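quick one, 237 residues, struct below
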Amino acid sequence: MPTEVRVFDDAAVLGDALADELLAAYGRSNGRFLVGCPGGRSLRTTYRALADRRASLSRLVVVMMDEYVAAPPEAHFSCRRFAREELAGPLGLADDQVWLPDEDDPCAYDEEIAAAGGIDLFLLASGASDGHVAFLGRGAPLDGLTSVVRLAESTRRDNLVTFPQFASLDDVPTHGVSVGLGTIRGARALRLVLHGADKRDAAARVLALDRFDPAWPASVVHAHPRAEIWLDREAAP
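---
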């Protein structure tokens, strides 16, 4: 069955709709509700729309996808800092409601997720030039779990756009600890979000596929029964 595609007028409208869908799923749930979250630009409109709803989210757990190895917690590129500033603070989450993988014990992340009942909804973004999700580049195994990985040069170049404070490619970290495609596939539902003209080629690439292609990791959505691709009109090819 083809992956469902939804197109919205712009990134703000997309973010509003995804925030409402997340809150509706949260309201139907019991116990902890785990949401897989990327850092970066693509889900910012969703996170901000979620904060604007001012909902009580005491059962929500944010499961961050990745972190750079040896990243200082206050570094401009730190996923921990992103989670604090874009999610925990605006949503009023306690420290134990935000999880990040541990570079010293990456396997423990999947164990922690499984012990909590699994991820209910995984929000995904795609690299513009290489289709990376989290820090997973070309050739990432479909059954891979959380591990320390070397970032592809194409992924690092994408990060020059995501984090303009980097002066050059030499400043971009070379390794990160990242969930695997198997971690992502284990979620109950996936939503791949691409918006803006700079993601049009990435959207075209994933839409041209109808199954997982290891050369384009974002195509993991085609290997999940409850995945959708959400685009705005600028990204829609």
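Residues 9 and 233 are 6 Å apart (CA to CA).
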